[in-house]
Amino acid sequence: MSRSNCLLVAIHSIEDGEIVLAKAGTIAAALGAPLHLLQAVYDTFADLSLHEVETSEGLKGAVLRDAEAKVLEMIAAWRAATHSKVPVSLSVVWEKRDWHAVLETAQALDTDLIIKSMAPSSMASSSMAPSSMAPSSMAPLSHSFIRTPSDWHLLRHSHCPVMLVTPINWTQRPNIIAAVDANIETPNALNDLILHQAQQYTQLLHGTLHVVSAFPSVERWLGPISVAIDFNKVRDNVQHQTDQILQEMTDRLGLPDAQFHSQEGEPAEVIQRLCQSLDAQLLVVGTAQNTGAKLMLLSNTAEQILQQVRCDVLVVINAPESALESTQASII
Q: 259-264 and 162-165 as β-strands: parallel, antiparallel, unpaired?
C-alpha cells in the first residue's frame, strides 16, 4: 500500500475509542503513517449558565485536562497490548460541534483518512438523520448502528475519505465489498477510486474482494406495454452484460481475484443483502461532490446504504478542485 501523510482518529469516548484506535493502528502500520487522535469535548454544568461555562477558562481547562489524561491512558494501554511503533499525537479541544473540529484538524494536517466510530443502539437510526435521508426499508433495529447528525455533517463536508467503524473487531480473511455502478459503461473516476481503495484494504486485511453492482428491476424498466417479453431472458441478458462490465472494470485496474455480484433491485437493498449474506467486514462506497446547489450533498443511494448496513463503511469522495475549495471555505 502507498504511504500516507496522516490518519485522523476522531474519539467520542474512551469506550468507543479503544476499538477505533485498534483499527486505525492496523491501517497506520500498513501505510507507514502517523496517527493523530482528536477528541472534541463539551460539557455543561447544572448549576451554571451556558455563558458562565463558556467564559470560565478554569472549568474548561479542568475538563480538557481530565479528558486528555483518559485518552493518554488509553493510548498507553493500546501500545502495551500491541507493541505498536506507530507515531501517535493527540489534541483535545473544547468544541460543541465535534464534526467541525474534525474537519478543521483534517484540513490543517492534510489528512488522508478520517476514522470515526458509530455506536450500536436499539434506537431507530432514521431518527438520528434528516427525514429526507430515511430509506424505504430498514435493517432490524436491534442490529443497527446510529449515524448521528455529526456523522452526516462530516461526510457531507469532508475533503478526504471517511471510515465509520463499528465496535466489532475485524476477523481473519474478511470479506470486503466494493459497491460500484456498472450502469456506466465508460471508465468512471469514482468507480476506479472505490475499487482502488477496496483493493488496498483487501491487501491490508488479507481478505477477499467482492464487487457488487445493482441493475434496475426489469419489469419496472420495460414497463407494462412489454407484456409479451420474456422477462427472465431479459433479466439474464442484463445480468450477463453487467458481469461483463464488472470484468472489464476489474481487468483494467488489475484486480484478477475479485468476485462479482450483479443483482436486480434498488442499489441500497442489494448492497445491504450482500453485506449480510457475506458477513462483510468493510463496505467501500463512493460519493461525488459537485459544485453549485448540490455541493457537499451525499447521493440518496449512499445515504440509504449508510443507514442500512451493519459493517464498517469507507466513504470515498471524488471531488473536483472547485468543490474542494468551496468545502474548505465553508468550514472556516
A: unpaired
Encoded amino acid at 171, one letter: T
pLDDT tens-digit map of 166-193: 988 898 899 999 999 888 766 788 899 9
Question: Do 141 and 124 form a contact (C-beta atoms < 8 A)?
Answer: yes
195-242 pLDDT tens trace: 999 999 999 999 999 999 998 776 555 555 555 566 678 778 888 888
Q: Considering only CA atoms, which of 60, 40, 288, 302 is closest in space to residue 150?
A: 40
For the question of whether the overall pTM of this predicted structure is more than 0.90, the answer is: no
Given a contact cutoff of 8 angstroms between Cβ atoms, the answer to whether 214 and 271 are in contact is: yes
Q: Which helix (H) or strand (E) holds 312?
A: strand 312-318
What distance in Å separates the CA atoms of residue 173 and residue 171, rounded to the nearest whole number?
Answer: 6
Sole residue written with cell 460543541: 96
Gap between the Cα atoms of 222 and 203, Å rounded: 41
Work out the burial of residue 82: count CB atoms within 10 Å of its CB; fewer than 13 is exposed, 13-18 middle, 19 or more buried.
middle
Distance of alpha carbon 106 from alpha carbon 9, whole angstroms: 10
Which amino acid appears at position 163 of this protein? M
User: Which three cell numbers mark 3?
Assistant: 504511504
- Closest CA relative to residue 239, chosen from 210, 273, 265, 257: 265
pLDDT tens per residue across span 289-298: 654 433 334 5
